[in-house]
Amino acid sequence: MSGPHLRDFKRIVFFTGAGMSAESGVPTYRGAGGIWKEYDYRRYACQEAFVRDPAAVWEFHNYRRGLVAACSPNRGYHIVARAGERSARVTVVTQNIDGLHAQAGSREICELHGNLWRVRCDRCHVKQQDGHVVREELRCDGCGGWWRPDIVWFGDHLHAPILDAAQAAIEGCDLFVSIGTSAVVYPAAYLPEYARKAGAVRVEINPDETPASHLYDVHLRGPATEMLARLADGDAELLA
Ligand code: APR
Fold first, then answer.
1. How does pLDDT run across 10-42, given as a tens digit for each residue?
2. Is 121 labelled a binding residue?
3. Is the pLDDT of residue 1 over 60?
4. Ligand 1 atom nearest 151 alpha carbon
5. So which residues are the signal peptide here (predicted)?
6. Is the pTM of this model over 0.70?
7. Angle in degrees, 0-180, between the axes of helices 75-83 and 224-232, rounded to the nearest 10
8. Which domains, and CATH codes, for the chain?
9. What is the DSSP letter of 46?
């Protein structure tokens, strides 16, 4: 297949959204069967909702943990992880909170929107890993504050050091591959512009057009696993 091919690049950034996990069985947010089609984020995914009814917000996130716990990284995740084991330096900049990139073996990961398997005390901000599908203790044993999912909810600010690390990786990359994002949520949706300014080759993988499609040189209109296999182009090691 004519290029681009992953093996031709030295500094790759994979910028991923919910579509990257769709073939693993994790629902997207805005597509058919999307989470926000069924649940109102104003009731389940913002600080006001948490203050109003922490138990309801936890019930919703336990449900999401259950969904994700039943899924595993698809072939696309493994191609991304293996690309990072080669000569090229690979950074994953993800909006996903499901932890599937780390599960697949990717190492350099900027989780822009946090992680479903981590909690943060709403008062003293201490953080804790938590692999349980159902969160038991809801009160911080240190200060008695509420434990909340360590996720960036609507209205929350992103964690500046993570956004800075993502921006730095993108400003230094020669290949920028966007996979499965609708490009409507900011500030994440600003990031492709940094790749354009950096002069990187930009590939958009998405069955559908997005408001950011004009920022890309190459559009691969199909599912993540298949399109990533194309970018790996017969590279046995990446496709193993
Ligand atoms: N392969 C590639 N792309 C896919 C696939 C697939 N198999 N299936 C769906 N897509 C595409 C859809 O066409 C859509 O453009 O993935 C995109 C998913 O878009 P959203 O559901 O809006 O997810 P995302 O862009 O990641 O959402 C951004 O919004 O709700 C907040 O914080 C949440 O991180 C999330 C952010």
1. 999 999 999 999 999 999 999 889 999 999 999
2. yes
3. no
4. 32
5. none
6. yes
7. 30
8. 1-25+73-113+158-240 (3.40.50.1220), 27-70+118-151 (3.30.1600.10)
9. B
